[in-house]
Amino acid sequence: MRPPTLMVSAAYAAQGVGYAVVVTALPAAKDRMGFSDAVVSAVLLGVCVAAALGSGLADAVAVRRGSRVALCVGFGVQFVALLGISLAHQLPVYLVAVALYGLGLGTVDAGSNMQGTALQARAGVPLLGRLYSVFTVGSVLGALLSAGVAALGVSALTLVGVVAFVQLGLASAGRTRFLPTLPACTADRAPATPLPRAGIWAVGSLVLVAYVLDAAVSTWSTIYLADGLRASAVLAPVAYAAYQAMVLLTRLVTDPAVVRWGRSAVAVSALLFGAAGCALIVLGPAAPVAVAGFAVAGLAVGAVVPIAFAAAGRLLPARSDEVIARVNVFNYAGAVTGAVIPGLLGTGAALRFGFVAPALALLLVLPVARRLTSSVPQGEPA
């Protein structure tokens, strides 16, 4: 593996590890500072809002200095934020650190996707599926690390502080080892070609619905099995584990599948499988059927997200960093929507009807997926 590929892969992995340790440290933060579940919800919402701003920050930096600098800035912000989260003993300090983390999260999300699409363009073969699989592995590793330190009697917030120095290492090493990219413009010469706004909205809609489904499953799958289907404490978390396993498996095979069958065919198939998985959740009379539904739904998220960002990078190659930064914002809109909608549509056994909304969303973007091509001329919508 070449050094730029290794470094970009490390960026995706570090992002997955960092987010996993932050969210799994929420119970430890609650115990230290004594805040309520309502504050936890507000924290997660604040992270999404700040992350959207972070995507804009990545855009602003990448336009002037290139995506390599944008990604390093993002990891630098995360270093400061994670240290603050680890050391905070007062709620106001913790909330400021979390907001700063959200800013860094969005900056790294956008910056890593900029670097990933640039790496893919240079290699001439699909790579984003594999890069996203590295992110998923990082998330699993972060969760396992949190479980490990808990077994040793160490606070999960201490682990957050350790991970902060991992992000600092990437920020330092990345200045010379991330993929060098040219900025889209300088202060005295703005690019003449306008951004393809219709294409951004089209590709962004794919990202949006994928994260609606992802957030719905992440937030409600365990609750639905436990409260709605009366599954045991052992079985209830299996739904989310099955979902994540399928996401990882799909991301590992997405790149060769795109090479063989084309971006459009793979995206359409993934969306249809995702809708079918949601249908199993809604119609399934028992926990095993629901678990299978969550697993099948993972096919959509696993394939659609890397395919969408690959398409975004081809919308306007000369300004791909700006396009990706804007498409990345749809990620957080989808995350907030997916986390909220199922809970509004039902509770207990009726929570299953909350998964009708993600299914409909997946079907609504099928026309967009059908128009995806393996090669997009410069300046044309994907």
Automatic annotation (TrEMBL):
Keyword entries, A-Z: Membrane, Transmembrane, Transmembrane helix
Primary localization class, coarse: membrane
InterPro entries according to UniProt: MFS, MFS_dom, MFS_trans_sf, MFS_Transporter
Subcellular location: Cell membrane
Pfam entry (one): MFS_1
Keyword Transmembrane among UniProt keywords: yes
Domain of life according to the entry: Bacteria
One of the record's GO molecular function terms: transmembrane transporter activity
GO CC annotations on file: plasma membrane
Protein name, entry field: Major facilitator superfamily (MFS) profile domain-containing protein
Source organism (scientific name): Cryptosporangium arvum DSM 44712
